[in-house]
Design a protein that fits this description.
By secondary structure, the protein is α+β, with helices and mostly antiparallel strands. The protein has helices at about 5-20, 30-40, 120-125, 140-150, 155-160, 170-180, 195-210, and strands spanning about 25, 45-55, 55-60, 65-70, 75-80, 95-100, 100-105, 110-115, 255-260, 265-270. Mean pLDDT is about 90; it is low at about 225-230. Bound molecules: zinc ion (ZN). Zinc ion (ZN) binds near residues 249, 254 and 271.
Length: about 280
C-alpha cells in the first residue's frame, strides 16, 4: 500500500509534467472513463491541479472534471517522454494522459473515476485536507478529536484509519509508535491528550520529512547513519523498527518484535523495551 508520502510525491511529479499544458491525448480501457471523455473530451483541456488526498490522487481538469484514482496495493503512475520505453507491459495500462512533452501512464490502477469536481469529496468520501498529514491545511486538534472517538481501539490500528488521519500507512504506523515510545497495542483510552498530541505531531513530521525534494521512493525515519547513495535491498535499513523483526533495537539493543494487528491483519513492529504497555503487561510477538 503506498504511504501518504508516495501519493504526495506522485502528485508532485504528475503536476510538474501535466499542469499548464493542453492535454493532447487520453486513453483508458475503463468504459466509464471513456464515456466521460466522449461527453466531455479531455484532449484540449488543461490539467489545473494534481492533488494527493489520503490514498486518492486527484487530477483536476480545466473543463470542471476530476479524475480520481486510488492506488490500493497495485497501482502506480509513471511519467515518460514520447518514445521512451515503458517499464511495465502495455496490458497493465489503465489510463494514459498525454501532452506535447510527456505521457503519464497509470498502471494497474484499480479504482479510477471521472466526475464533476464539485462532487468529488462527497462521492468518494475522500478525507478532508484538514486530516491529511501532508496537507498545509492539516489541523492537529481535529485529528486528536477523531483519534479520541476510537477509545476502545489499539493506537496502531487507529493510525491506519484514513477517516481519522489520512496519509499514514503501515510502515509509518510502526515508526511513529517507536519514535513516540508508544506501544502500538495500547488502547487509545490509555493515552492522555499530551501523548495523542505527540503522536500526531510525529506522524506529520515523519511523513513530511519524507516528501522533501531530494527524497527518493524509500521511507527514511532512522537517520543514525549516513544517507545512502545507492538503493538498499533491505527495506528496514533506513527505519527504526519496520521490517526488523529479531534484529537489535537501534536504541536499546532489545530484539524487535513483529505481530499481526487488527481486523485487517496488518504487520506491526515494535521494541518491547522502548515501547512498554502503560500497565506493564507484555504483548507477544
Ligand atoms: Zn528498544
Amino acid at each position: 500500500m503506498p504511504e501518504g508520502d508516495t501519493i504526495f510525491r506522485t502528485a508532485r511529479a504528475l503536476g510538474r509534467a501535466l499542469i499548464g499544458k493542453p492535454v493532447t491525448g487520453f486513453r483508458s480501457p475503463y468504459p466509464l472513463l471513456t464515456r466521460f471523455n466522449d461527453d466531455t473530451p479531455i484532449a484540449g483541456q488543461q490539467v489545473e491541479r494534481v492533488e494527493p488526498r489520503g490514498k486518492w490522487l486527484l487530477i483536476h481538469f480545466s473543463g470542471g472534471g476530476t479524475l480520481a484514482t486510488h492506488m490500493l496495493m497495485s497501482g502506480s503512475w509513471h511519467i515518460y517522454r514520447h518514445g521512451e520505453r515503458w517499464q511495465q507491459p502495455r496490458a497493465n495500462m489503465r489510463i494514459v494522459l498525454e501532452n506535447s512533452e510527456y505521457i503519464a501512464v497509470g498502471f494497474r490502477v484499480p479504482v479510477a473515476k471521472m466526475m464533476k469536481s464539485q462532487d468529488v469529496e462527497r462521492a468518494l468520501r475522500i478525507p478532508p485536507a484538514t486530516i491529511d498529514v501532508s496537507s498545509e491545511a492539516f489541523n492537529a486538534a481535529e485529528v486528536a478529536r477523531r483519534v479520541g472517538a476510537h477509545a476502545t481501539e489499539e493506537i496502531g490500528d487507529v493510525l491506519l484509519h484514513q477517516e481519522v488521519i489520512a496519509g499514514v500507512g503501515n510502515v509509518f504506523k510502526s515508526e511513529i509508535c517507536f519514535v513516540t515510545a508508544t506501544n502500538p497495542f495500547c488502547k487509545v483510552s490509555l493515552l492522555d491528550s499530551e501523548e495523542v498530541a505527540t503522536l500526531i505531531a510525529v506522524a506529520r513530521r515523519l511523513v513530511k520529512a519524507n516528501v522533501l525534494e531530494d527524497s527518493d521512493d524509500s521511507i527514511v525515519t532512522y537517520g543514525g547513519r549516513k544517507r545512502r547513495t545507492t538503493h538498499e535491498s533491505d527495506p528496514g535499513a533506513s527505519l527504526w523498527v519496520y521490517g526488523r523483526r529479531g534484529e537489535p533495537c537501534r536504541k536499546c539493543g532489545e530484539r524487535i518484535r513483529r505481530r499481526i494487528q487488527g481486523p485487517d491483519a496488518r504487520v506491526t513492529f515494535w521494541c518491547p523495551q522502548c515501547q512498554p504497555m502503560p500497565d506493564g503487561s507484555d504483548v507477544d510477538g
